[in-house]
Amino acid sequence: MKSISEISFFNFINSNNKNGESSSSSSFSSTISVEEVVTKKIDSEEEKQDSNNSRDYFKELTESIIVNETTEIIKTTTKLPNKQRKKKRRTNNHGSKNRTIQVVENIEYRKGYFVNSRGYKLVCQEWIPKNPKGVVIILHGYGDHGQTLLADDCKMFAKLGYASFIFDQQGHGLSEGLTAYIRDFEDLVEDSMLFISDIKFRFPTLKRFVYCCSMGGAVGLLVSLKKPEIFNGGLILLAPLIKLDENMVPNPLVVSILRWVSQSFPTLPIVPGDNVLDRSIKDPQKRLEHATHPLTYKGRARLGTGLAILKVTSYLQDHLKDVNVPLLICHGSLDRVSSPKVSEELYSLAKSKDKTLKIYQSFWHGLTCEETSYIIYDDITNWMKERLNKESNFETINETATPQENINNNDNNPIGAASF
Question: A Gene Ontology molecular-function term (predicted)?
Fold first, then answer.
């Protein structure tokens, strides 16, 4: 969400022309498009429908809901670990030097969609290795998508033997819906649970790890509160959006004005403030690469979206004590989008017996865009590997990680994803 400045907001509302006549109305009306007016009417109908019908979060599927449009076999090459290389060395008949064997494996990639209860097609992707040992489901952040960086994360997990899945939330990436408009986080939760239910139906015996970035962390936590049994592997939170940085939160008076305007025009992209990417990604080149991608949302936050974020973060702060799933919480100490202090509160208050907190010193919000992001990937993959063992007993862990850790282990570092 873009930061909301009290001064800049009132400058927008009260801007006057040289004749002393208010010019805010013309600026305001110029941002209204036919698409937004139509969307407002559709959303109004959806609200009426939601008030009359309770959502079926706990629906068990009897067949897959995914419509596959593309299937491809991806060949991957994996170097054997050092201990296994010695056993696999071989010499040719001419007495040449030993050569290391590389394992070539096939990963089945599929791209398709499913249709949510509101009739929108949501694009999804999956990478399935032969005989997967577990499942990874990625929930992306605000304005983001699963078409580039997070797709690379999926490929990485698939190479490690995990069936990996991601979908673009409504209004994000390649999915249908007004771009970056969130009417209610319950919509995102419903769609995420439907997607996860499909994966559970197809891979019922495998442990599921839900890997969440920023806003995806808020969605993941909401899902865990409604259906904790989904997380038989664990919930992995990267800079979860539980509380906005205090510099991004307007005072109650500004929120009241925003709420009043949003009643009539919830889809207007007029929330002022700095671009969230400037606060998320430390490296200027990586920031530019992500910002210039055509599927990354670069406009101002819509009024309804901003209010939905404020609403859900307030709710989550009141329900941290009710979280009761295996947790790995990762946060940067210099995060200027979501507060790392609330991640510490989540760790402290959650009922989970198996919970781990890692604070990475000097890291920003986009954890996996850091130069030493391999530290995070090592922590995540090791944590998952340990929990594949059903007999393991885990204790709570609270650690502070620094960029100097594992400095010699920067081999095959996967490309990380920016999280918002």
Answer: lipase activity
